[in-house]
Amino acid sequence: MISDARTAGGVMIEQTVSQDAEESYGETFAMETERMDAYYGNFRAVKDVTLSFRDRRITALIGPSGCGKSTLLRTLNRMNDLVPTARVEGEVRFHGQNIYADSVDPVELRRRVGMVFQKPNPFPKSIYQNVAWGARINGMKDDLEGLVERSLRQAALWDEVKDKLDESGYSLSGGQQQRLCIARAIAVKPEIILMDEPTSALDPVATLRIEELIQDLKVNYTIIIVTHNMQQAARASDYTVFLNMDQDRAGYLVEAGATSMLFTRPAKIETEDYITGRFG
Amino acid sequence: MTPLPPDVSGEAPDLFTTSPYMRRRRRRGAVVKFALLLALMTAVAALVTLIITVINGSFGLAAVENAKPPSELAASLGHPEGTELESLGKEDLVTLLEAEISTNLGRRFERERRFFDDRLVFEDPYVLNDLCMSGEPPPACSLSARSREDVYGLVVERVVDPTIVGTWSFFDSVFNRGEIEADAALEHPGAELIFRSWISWDFIRNPQSPEPAVAGIRTALFGSMWVVLITLVFSFPVGVGAAIYLEEYARENRLNSIIQTNINNLAGVPSIIYGMLGLAIFVRTLEVITSGSFLGGGGGATANGRTIISAGFTLGLLILPLIIINAQEAIRAVPGSLRQAGMALGSTKWQTVRAHVLPNALPGILTGTILAVARALGETAPLVVVGASTFITTDPTGPFSKFTVLPIQIFQWTSRPQDEFRNIAAAAIVVLLVLLLTLNAAAVILRNRYSRRAV
Q: Closest residue of B to A188, CA-based?
């Protein structure tokens, strides 16, 4: 299968896949869903999704608007709990544990499964406070300054902001704000980072920087990214999940696999139609 | 249905003449615009009338009859003709008092407070000495001597003894001065015509008095401050707390939507009804607490439950819905993305609310609270029911005192038959308006300052 990818895929995909084979990560799963349904009231937004997300890999969720990509993403760290009518059936497993079990504390889950949003949403506080706050409320009070610096370095923002840590997070450009949000997410030491169309509000240059950053981050974090942009999924992800919606507007899983495979040899005709731009 | 009129086909559009249809549209627009302008003018006219009326009463000529003309008094001490009484020194003023008032009255004043530190004017040194050694020494034993202003006040009050025999409004005074002078000379031959501002420092500093010339609003001002303070202490934490719960914690169910609807309705309930509620609960049922008698204080016995604390809580109930609604709106205006960002970092609900929602909602909450307090400051009806005292000359000493407030004072003065009371009522209205405008301005400044800082 890998050789297939090499003949058909682009250079970048080839590289990603070849790296896969050499590393020990990617063999285990960071998170799994099993026959999961997500509802808003009576409306079923996601239907019967069984999926595995590989550890320290980038998985992209693609699909037409309204197919439940974001909903699926938000069920993974129970951010959907904040919507009063939302509920989930089936299982979502993290370290083999169903995160919807009664004994699970969603607050601790969200610390370990962080999130970056579509629109950059820094707190209206200083850059330093933006990064330090999450760590502080989670009780990581030792060497906050070091933590802030490390987080900003990992988010490739340190050099740009090291002299103005006391300035408002709003003083940064859109792309910088989004990297600040990534630094903020990193600072609480999560295992998984969920990204909900993190570049859709950014210009192409800022988008590219974020994509590069995501590549750097996968050494340490499992990344699941929702994207509208198929080129982005092809460029920046190791695995791709394609969702579509049925006539009841419920999202269902069409196909999931290595990005190189999915974009070159989709197993389903639906996938091919979508990635070649015939609908969606 | 009639078909749409066809476009002018083939012809070049004529942009320089208006079609009758276009003229009709424009005319309709102009009529509406004029009606709107008329509405605005009505509102402005009402406001201007209000201000003019108040100003008209607050300043104006007054005919004052003096028992002893001040110029004669100065001359009687050998000062040259035309010397003002006000320019005299303390020595001269005391001499005047000595000459004009009875020794008994002088002694009374001297026992209240001595005229000089080094000598006595009316009192026998031995008598005062004995008094000071007795069980209940008069205040003079411990206080320092009276100031010159103090003595001057006594001379004016006791010797000159001015009585206002007639007053005229501001516009009359300015435009019909000649006529007024002629009138005054005819009707009050001994009177002096002076232009008087009814608002003055003395007016603000003096306590209530049956004599309009010296009556002031100090008692009412202190009463208002106390009542508003209690109102705020009660309704701010309760109101903001309720708003936080409703916005951040309450689930969307029938009970909560009933509660929400009722809060909105309560904001429109006539204030007199809150007065009835306050009377029933705070004044009657909780009398033991609101009269202060549970503390064993004797002062409460006379006021029963009709105290500052009852009034404060009544007004607190009155503005509670306003504070809740305003705070809810401020909290709702905080973008949801901030809450999500906070929650996604593994914070508890309260941590997110405390660190992100409240700081961002605070300017709005404070603005709403200030406006609600301004409303409380101007309320009259519920306090009439709760039992504000209409005539009270002593400053409130604490939450269990009897009280009066500015609007009640104004109401009481306007219902007096004498003209002069209407003048001081107008003056008190000016003070109340200034207070309210200050509060509103503070709200506006606060809002502007923070809305600039937020983004």
A: B345
